[in-house]
Design a protein that fits this description.
The complex is a heterodimer. Chain A is α/β, with parallel strands linked by helices. Chain A contains 13 helices and 16 strands. Classes of the chains: A alpha/beta, B alpha/beta.
């Protein structure tokens, strides 16, 4: 047996994935159901030369991870609903200033203090539009402990590669479920680090990008003295009110992820070949959906599933194609239909999708999805 | 000394109004760093939002202009990632003690090695003169048209009570003293705060009939009392006075230093 086989919780998988991705700084604030990530890293990080700090609030934690990343250290913060709300302003800062950071939101029932110990998928739209202004963002939704580990590494890789905050959306079930996992040898992982400047300090323009659209990033302390601001800036990094330069900057910022969508957007299709009824699901709800699908197939109903792994940018084209193959689509989610709307948009409103929604703190039972499917037959 | 060496000359003229004290503080910071022979590559300057928070744009260091009130939080991340950097936070009374008050007191309690320069002009200048936690009760502001009804923070005393290693106060009139005190704050291993009384003739002076910026700076000369002398004076005598000098200068465990010991311990286990 591989020496890296464990019985592991989703939250711990985040912590271990972060370490294997090269994260050496964590700042956070206690909040259920994400606290195990902080607890685990408070022990692990100092032992491997990293640093952990429990800040005075969620806003400070978000600020600290941006500061550490600016100084060249891969950084993580983790929280849940109310804390995710508090982090939003600084998430926008990271998006505009193009500072790589990873933010974990272990979703619990909302709004407000809501249901601290119970699962939800109510923050999926907040992950996209929680901070003000047009901005790029990546959000990933794992559905198992092993996938949580893999996606944490992916989140760091993409934050570094595309210089953007990446949000990892667990829900309470994925955060707390224990599963047997065998983790890969860290030496065999593909780890991406941000591009360092290829020019000497006097020639460095911190926000000038080549055709990759991603500027090279110097770390504070490396001899490249430059300015970072949350004001709209030009390629020098200094604020500008010049309409042309503002447009140029906003255009690059908001198109940089579009350029890489083919790489970023990931979905998993199961039994979609002959499917007449389709399920679009993500996170813990996809686990219920998988069981429902199997039972429906036993009854002779041809059901296939498209499981969303990359939630933002939204897999519009994949779902459009899926919508052409099937006659009906069912979207089970632990909210009142936030992603169902997006699915309808993706299939260009050719038909209404069927919703299975739950916000009472319970997970969706496979039979609830199955009954919806039977009703469509 | 060569001030221009430390400045981004192409970023001038600066945004500050005629009569503003922020330029005097900028000069004092440069004098302090020059005296200490600290290289530009060793300094990270971090700010929040407001007039004073525009300082980093003019200096040739690693400069980070962050969100309103959060400079100390960002600075904490930089300092933990690169402890070898001198981290200097420039912030105003509203930025540091209203929206950023929580970060200020917790960084002081933590006693993390950085220097925080709080420009106290009693007002939100950049947004046009709204009342701040440092507006004296009875003074006017655009959001205190019938006068300020709240008590104001004694900022330096607040930081001393919260656990900072070094806390001092100066005015911009006492510019030599200011440079010296900033120098000592930078040298100090621990959380250091300098509260700097600086005039805002535009947004605070005018509405309160304080005269020109020059007049407001000259008034600081008459209002200032050295802390040693203040200790011999009655509260009545000290009314409306500005107590300048070093409030605390003490040896306390410093956060990064303590954390690094924890790291060694964790690595031995």
């Amino acid at each position: 047996m591989n020496s890296r086989t464990y019985m592991m919780q989703g939250n711990v998988a985040v912590a271990e994935g972060a370490i294997d991705a090269g994260c050496r700084f964590y700042a956070g604030y206690p909040i259920t159901p994400s606290s195990e990530i902080a607890e685990h890293l408070s022990k692990r990080l100092p032992a491997i030369g990293g640093k952990f700090i429990q800040m005075e609030d969620e806003i400070a934690a978000m600020g600290a991870v941006i500061g550490a990343s600016v100084a060249g250290v891969k950084s993580l913060t983790a929280t849940s609903g109310p804390g995710f709300s508090l982090k939003q302003e600084n998430i926008g800062y990271a998006s505009l200033a193009e500072v790589p950071v990873v933010i974990v939101n272990v979703m619990r029932g909302g709004p407000s203090t809501g249901l601290p110990t119970l699962p939800s998928q109510g923050d999926v739209m907040q992950a996209r539009w929680g901070t003000h202004g047009d901005h790029p963002i990546i959000a990933l939704v794992p559905a198992s402990v092993r996938e949580t580990y893999d996606m944490t590494i992916q989140a760091f890789n993409w934050s570094e590669k595309y210089r953007t905050p990446v949000i990892l959306l667990l829900d309470e079930i994925i955060g707390h479920v224990h599963e047997k996992v065998t983790l890969p040898d860290p030496d065999e992982l593909q780890i991406f680090n941000r591009k360092k400047p290829s020019v000497p300090p006097e020639e460095y323009l911190p926000y000038k990008a080549d055709e990759s659209l991603i500027p090279e990033m110097a770390a504070f302390g490396d001899g490249y003295r430059y300015h970072i601001t949350g004001l709209i800036h030009d390629e020098t990094g200094f604020p500008t009110n010049n309409a042309e330069k503002i447009a140029e900057m906003m255009d690059r910022l908001n198109s940089k992820l579009l350029k890489y969508e083919h790489e970023i957007i990931q979905v998993e299709e199961t039994d979609t070949g002959d499917a007449e009824i389709g399920i679009v699901a993500y996170g813990s709800s996809a686990r219920s959906a998988r069981t429902a699908m199997r039972k429906a197939r036993e009854e002779g109903i041809k059901v296939g599933m498209l499981r969303i792994q990359t939630l933002w940018p939204f897999p519009v084209d994949k779902i459009y194609e899926f919508g052409k193959k099937v006659k009906e689509i069912v979207v089970p989610e632990l909210n009142l239909g936030q992603i169902a709307h997006e699915v309808e948009h993706a299939i260009q409103d050719r038909f209404r999708v069927h919703r299975v929604n739950k916000v009472n703190g319970e997970p969706i039972h496979p039979d609830e999805i199955l009954n919806k499917i039977r009703g469509l037959k | 000394m060569d001030y221009f060496k430390y400045l981004r000359k192409d970023k001038f003229p600066h945004i500050w109004c005629a009569g503003c004290g922020d330029g005097i503080v900028l000069k004092a910071i440069i004098r302090a760093l020059d005296n200490l022979k600290i290289e530009k590559n060793q300094v990270a300057m971090v700010s929040g939002i407001g007039c004073s928070s525009r300082t980093p744009g003019y200096v040739d260091f690693y400069t980070l202009h962050t969100t309103h009130g959060r400079a100390i939080a960002f600075a904490t991340g930089i300092k933990m990632a690169k402890p070898e950097l001198h981290v200097i936070v420039v912030t105003g009374d509203g930025d540091a003690t209203a929206i950023g008050g929580n970060h200020l007191i917790h960084a002081a309690r933590r006693n993390i090695n950085m220097t925080v320069l709080i420009y106290n002009n009693h007002i939100y200048g950049m947004t046009g003169g709204q009342v701040s936690p440092a507006t004296p009760m009875g003074d006017f502001a655009t959001t205190a048209p019938f006068s300020a009804v709240e008590n104001n923070f004694a900022i330096a005393e607040l930081c001393a009570a919260a656990g900072a290693s070094f806390v001092a106060r100066s005015t911009v009139y006492h510019s030599n003293f200011l440079a010296k005190i900033i120098e000592r704050a930078i040298e100090k291993r621990g959380f250091s705060v300098v509260e700097i009384m600086t005039p805002c003739p535009t947004a605070y002076g005018k509405i309160n009939k304080k005269g020109t910026g020059e007049q407001m700076i000259l008034d600081q000369k008459n209002l200032a009392v050295r802390i040693e002398k203040a200790q011999t004076m009655s509260p009545e005598e000290l009314k409306n006075k500005i107590i300048i000098g070093t409030l605390v200068d003490r040896e306390l465990p410093e956060y990064i230093n303590t954390y690094e010991k924890i790291m060694s311990q964790a690595q031995r286990m």
